[in-house]
Specification:
There is one protein chain. By secondary structure, the chain is mainly α. 70% of the residues lie in helices and 0% in strands. It contains four helices and no strands. It has helices at 2-17, 27-34, 38-44, 48-55. Helix 1 (2-17) crosses helix 2 (27-34). The longest helix is centred in the N-terminal third of the chain and has 16 residues, at 2-17. The protein is globular and about 25 Å long.
Length: 56
């Protein structure tokens, strides 16, 4: 389910933003937190800022 993956990444981003600023969050941080592969991240988003734009 692509929407489930996007939602998981969004939730992971929100959790990580409580701990550190956006410019310090890496793709590895996001994918490790929600348990998906880097390839899955890049399948849905081109970078973290694309994820932020989609979330907002």
């Amino acid at each position: 389910m692509p929407n489930a993956t996007k939602a998981a990444l969004e939730e992971s981003l929100k959790r990580l933003l409580l701990k550190k600023p956006l410019d310090k969050i890496t793709i590895t941080d996001l994918t490790t937190d929600c348990g998906i592969s880097r390839m899955a991240f890049y399948y849905h988003f081109k970078d973290i800022y694309d994820l932020v734009e989609w979330s907002v």
